[in-house]
Amino acid sequence: MSLLFRSAEPGPGMPFVPMRSPHSMISVTGQTARRHSAVWAALRLRADLISSLPIDAFRHTTSGIQEPMPLPPVLRNPTPYMRMMEWVYSSQQDLDTYGNCFGLISNVDGGLFPRFITLVPASEVTVVQKPDGDVRYRIKGREYDRSEVWHEKQYTVPGMAVGLSPIAYAALAISQYVSAQQFAVAWYTQNAIPAGILRNSAKTIKAEEALEAKARFKASVAQGDVFVTGVDWEFSPLQSKSNDAAFLNSMNASAADIARFFSVPVDMIDASQAGTSVTYANITQRNLQLLILHLGPMISRREDAISASLMSGPRFVKFNTDALLRMDPQTRSAMMGQQVRDRLRAPDELRQLDNFEPFTEDQYAQIDRLFTTRRVTVTTPATPVETEGLVDGIES
What we know:
Blueprint: E1 19-20, E2 27-28, H1 30-33, H2 37-51, E3 55-60, E4 66-69, H3 84-98, E5 100-108, E6 114-120, E7 125-129, E8 135-139, E9 142-144, E10 149-153, H4 166-169, H5 171-189, E11 196-200, H6 207-222, E12 233-237, H7 242-245, H8 247-261, H9 283-310, E13 315-319, H10 329-341, H11 347-353, H12 361-370, E14 371-379, E15 384-392
Helix pairs in contact: 2-3, 2-8, 5-8
């Protein structure tokens, strides 16, 4: 784990260090935290969704219209060996784990904007903020200035050059889970000994005898051997240590906490929360709630950071969140048909979304034959009345 210093050199600074639970004394780092299934699920969900969103580039015209433009090379291939989707996924993992992601700028274009950005694990970076506001980066023993390092952060607070880490603040909940998990693994593979009482029911024993019996019991059980005794000794496991004995309860209790730290719905990481039930009318509503309340602000921050660092002037980038709000075919067809009827979109424009070519003259003629305005006669008891109406391909 790196040290992310806030104060100047020299001085102790404010180190970003592994957190330890007072109960288990297990060190929680970005790597050990991923052993918690809820942490892994939350990180995977956020990185999967963000990296799969298409990225579009635009520029503001003088009339205020956002005009599409080609993506700059760095947003197609950030490095010679990594495509943009993988780059976004990897950087999102560090952003959500450490609150920061870093990359070395190895080339620039004619406008001095980055051409290649090679990501560096956040755990190998030290950030030092000096009194004059200057920030320096140490990566594998070498120091870099701001112009040489891509640094994106989230969960920021005033006065700090680095973002906060959810892992550090969730360390207690994570450590409790990992502690129980390690004990369970040790119990089945290494014969860990649970806390309990070894009692002699036949007589009162002295301290020296108690220590000898305890040592014999631990030495035998810890090695997976059989502890041989008569009718005098009884072992009763203690039930009070919930984070050791109640292993499954520890997992369920911490999953909801982890979901809140990483801002993901509990149900979307396949975790349960007692007394909570949310029902959505359709998948679109569910994804809309996820986008608005959980992912939307983070997406906007990433758009702003990428636009400010990689593009100039009126140019900017946007993640196409429409890809997240995919609708079922019936709802999508109804929405598109309504847009055409309200004259908001042209049919050929909507067909292009499905990779269809524009209508040909023959197709238009076929549609006209199916939906033709015909003169029909409606007979009423009083008098015949002639009217016009749509007859869907039916001879009148």
